Amino acid sequence: MTLDINAAFDGGNIRLVAVEGEGNDWRCDLEIVRDHQSDFFQWFYFRAAGLRGKRVAFRILNAGDSAYPFGWPGYKTRASTDLDQWRMIDTRYDGGVLGFDWTGQADLAWFAYFAPYTMEMHARLVARIAARAGVTHRQLGETLDGQAIDYFRLGTGEKQVWLYARQHPGESMTEYWMEGALDWLTSPAAAPLLREATVHVVPNMNPDGTRRGHLRTNAAGVNLNREWHAPTAERSPEVLCVLREMDATGVTFAIDVHGDEAIAANFIAGFEGIPSWNSARGDRFTEFGRRLAAHTPDFQTQLGYEKAAPGTANLSMSTNQLAERFGAVSVTLEMPFKDHDANPDPAFGWSAERSRALGVACLEVLTEMIATL
């Protein structure tokens, strides 16, 4: 009887430290691998084989040294036996060790920080959307590993709307959000928005980090959301090619889609500290959040990040850079790795399905507001 651990696949991340077992009771000690040339790590995704009939205690020994250890309390690991349904399982965090148990009814199971969205899934999304009427697809550039930066354009309106996600590749819920948004944008429901706006979409800003199983960085160990003031071909070609296209089109409204490790809620962050901030743009940002909270129980405005003081915005971050550079109403949307506690789901928590639905809700609210932006 053996127990085999493997993460050598698209998006996988784990290192086996030790396996001990006898009869039905086994213990498996693991470590999360750091992002290449970086100290960031938190994303994990691995397969266990030989589980049938075993009770296995999994322990991630270095969880306390991860990028955001304050995100582990209250967190629940996602597990799947079919790579389709990802259910939460009881998880404990004690003494810097993240632990969860599994009793094998089948030989195979997969475990992940959140429901994975692999580069194979990305390729299928791109193929599906690119084939639809009214969609223009382009490759804006290449990553350091030679992967494509895929881009879609829809609509003919004057307002320039930009949607982009997965600057931080471990935030896989963001590409599920993009699935929902793109399916809606290619449906008849989007016609009013597409008359008023041209919508530009980059569903995955960081393909290299996605494939490598990184939490936060690209192939060079660079956090792309600290590159928007001065991207380079050597460090951040992903940002460089997207920002060049933004310079060509302008930006009226933008959503940068992210995931947050600690806060058990969906929320938005803005651009309050930029040099050119004014109350008119601030009011439109606030109104978007207010309407979204009224539109869906899966959004709220009470929890979130502290606002930057006047003149202190970090212009290397995309939301601040786009607001300052283009005069845009620029939004960072954050989704949880935990659950949306104001509207919880005890089986799945915050999930792929709910991420897709929030993508639709955001665009429905944007449609209501587009004439005022």
From TrEMBL:
It comes from the Bacteria. InterPro entries: Cytosolic_carboxypeptidase, Pepdidase_M14_N, Peptidase_M14. The active site is at E334 (proton donor/acceptor). Its cofactor is Zn(2+). Residues 115-373 form the Peptidase M14 domain. PROSITE patterns: PEPTIDASE_M14. It holds the Pfam family Pepdidase_M14_N. Belongs to the peptidase M14 family. This is Murein tripeptide amidase MpaA. It comes from Sphingomonas endophytica.
